[in-house]
Amino acid sequence: MTFRLADPEGRYAAVRLCSDLPLTDRERSFEREGEDWLLEIDRPAILRLEYHLEVTDADGVSQTGPDPGNPLRAPGAFGEKSVLLLPGYEPPAWLDTPVVEGVSRDFAVRGRGLGAHVHGRIWSPAADGPLPLLVAHDGPEYDKLAFLTRYAGAMIAAGTLPPFHVALLAPGPRDEWYSASALYARALYVDVVPGLREAVAVGGPVVGMGASLGGLAMLVTQRRAPGTFGALFLQSGSFFMPRFDAHESGFSRYARIVRVVRRILRVQEHSAPVPVQLTCGAAEENVLNNRVMARALAEQGYDARLDEVPDLHNYTAWRDAFDPHLTRLLARMFT
Questions:
Q1: Up-side HSE of residue 136: CA atoms within 13 Å toward CB?
Q2: 14 beta partners
Q3: How many angstroms separate the CA atoms of 80 and 51, rounded?
Q4: Cis bond upstream, residue 273 (ω within 30)
Q5: pTM value?
Q6: Which residues contact 198 (CB under 8 A, 6 or more apart)?
Q7: E-assigned strands of 263-328?
Q8: How far apart are alpha carbons 108 and 302 in whole angstroms?
Q9: To bridge 240 with a disulfide, which of 37, 42, 47, 257 should be the other Cys (CB 3.0-4.6 Å)?
Q10: 288-329 residue pLDDT tens
Q11: What is the DSSP letter of 283?
Q12: With helix as H, strand as E and coil as C, how does 13-76 read?
């Protein structure tokens, strides 16, 4: 993979690649070549790369932003990034297929012990009777950046999946709630899921999904309250383990996550295992801890499966994994 930044006026003293690829400072640093800056890296196991460029001027002032020489952009939770699409990449077909009509309603329930309400939105297709329910952490972001309800509408319209509700839970103070918090897990199974059942007619299983810390929080809730979720869809879960994730030690709740993850891994079996589908970018840092977690869950009696996708830690990667991986799980649970 070759990156090139034109600099005919010699404005920059250094240029670096900023991405989720696990590169050293030397490996991500461009070299001057004539009027350009050039970087060549071995192609990792990906078909997409989202990135920024960090440029430093002669006064040592650095700025980070999209690549001015690349017009392709990808939306993200922290703003746009440049995106490189490699040969073989294809966006999901369901982005361009018909969808069923749906209606949305706001949702809020006070979470006991949190001192706050958990807010969200519930999307429902035009269908009669109680329906199964998919509950998503970071729901508004999943919908805006990964088109989760469009996916649901497309799968229902095609007859691939039966009608189901989608609850899009807003993250609130995400770093606190989703970081293996026992208080948040309790609010989820005591207040939020029962509140969703009161807000819409739920019939059949409830499936929980989340990405990164949101996936961790779903797993922690299922462990603490078996029966809350009939299955889990976990994407790039932040299952921090010191041997792989010491670089995350500056995160305020790193120690708590490590402690809870260690407790999960030490158990030899679980009294109420459920189907768990995990996905993770094949070249992202979290893939190592996801492999360990998937193996541990399987050994504890879960029907756990990890599928690695040719991307990194971003909403487009998570969107691209919905079909077939989420489709397969929901078909199993909802039909």
A1: 26
A2: 56
A3: 9
A4: no
A5: 0.95
A6: none
A7: 275-281, 303-309
A8: 32
A9: 257
A10: 999 999 999 999 999 999 999 999 999 999 999 999 999 999
A11: T
A12: EEEEEEECCCCCCCCCECEEECCEEEEECCCCCCCEEEEEEEEEECCCCEEEECCCCCCCEECC
Residue 14, both tokens: 């250094």
Question: In the beta sheet, which residues pair with residue 106?
Answer: 121
Query: Which residues are CB-contacts of 87 (< 8 A; sequence separation ≥ 6)?
Result: 47
DSSP letters, 174-231, are: HHHHTTT-HHHHHHIIIIIHHHHHHHS-EEEEEEEEEETHHHHHHHHHHHHSTTS-SE
pLDDT digits (tens, 9 = 90+) for 168-223: 999 999 999 999 999 999 999 999 999 999 999 999 999 999 999 999 999 999 99
DSSP code of 129? Answer: S
**Which tokens go with 251?**
């995160």
Cβ(257)–Cβ(216) below 8 Å: yes
Least Cα distance to 242 among 253, 258, 265, 260 occurs for: 258
Q: Which neighbouring-strand residues pair with 320?
A: none
The single-letter code of the amino acid at 2 is T
As a whole number of angstroms, the longest Cα–Cα distance in the chain is: 68
Nearby residues of 266 by Cβ (< 8 Å), 6 or more positions away = none
Opening angle at CA 15, ends 11 and 20, nearest 5: 150
DSSP 86: P
d(C-alpha 142, C-alpha 121), whole Å: 12
